[in-house]
Amino acid sequence: MDIVQASNLVKRYLVGEQQVTAIRNANFNIKQGSFVSFVGPSGSGKSTLLNMIGGLDKPSDGKLLINNTDISTLNRKQAAKFRGEHIGFIFQDFNLIPVLTVAENIEYPLLMVQNWPLAKRQQRVKTLMEAVGIAEQANKFPSQLSGGQKQRVAVARALASQAKLVLADEPTANLDHQTAFRIIDLMKQMRDDFGTTFIFSTHDNKIMNAAESLFILEDGEISEHRQTATEGERA
Ligand SMILES: Nc1ncnc2c1ncn2[C@@H]1O[C@H](COP(=O)(O)OP(=O)(O)OP(=O)(O)O)[C@@H](O)[C@H]1O
Q: Which CATH number is 33-60+75-230 given?
């Protein structure tokens, strides 16, 4: 099943009196459970695509179905509910809440959107902290963590509400290479364990090859859809 279906997708922005076309006529489908990357230079449209897929920004034209829902038809409140139920976000600067502990940061989306009972929340937070290897830091605050540890918390938080789809905009941009690969491997492990679809963006050639398939963006257009080597072929 395709979790993302985009046809003739267009995004234009008005900057003063000038129109900027950030995405021109993009067509692509992404299968449930896949591990894909949008790749391209700065300004090629990666964030714009991820924001539309995440229901943070509306297409100017074309059609975008997420989990068979046409998200351009949702109003703000419906879009927020849809995001809370279906989509997790990971950002390059981690976006953790500084006054909350690691455990509380992971629990936060469950409190805000899902309203789960306490025992169920605590069990879910514990499972996720163990899955991403951060259980020993449960009571620390973000300022007491390394970049890699912060991004582990962000991965756990994105998975908290059992989102079907996790979007990560340059999740490794603020990490050294070794840590970056560990985070990508962790995301892939989470995909294997939970069946979550991951879409991440990067302009880093080394990181992009960790994806199973790549959409190459050039000046707002998808110029190529490339399958990367499987783990076996690369070894
Ligand atoms: N809110 C906005 N208002 C006006 N123009 C925008 C807006 N967001 C993006 N753009 C323009 O759309 C184009 C694509 O930008 P986008 O941020 O999607 O690229 P990107 O590939 O994510 O770049 P980067 O790697 O630098 O984050 C650029 O020309 C950008 O200036």
A: 3.40.50.300
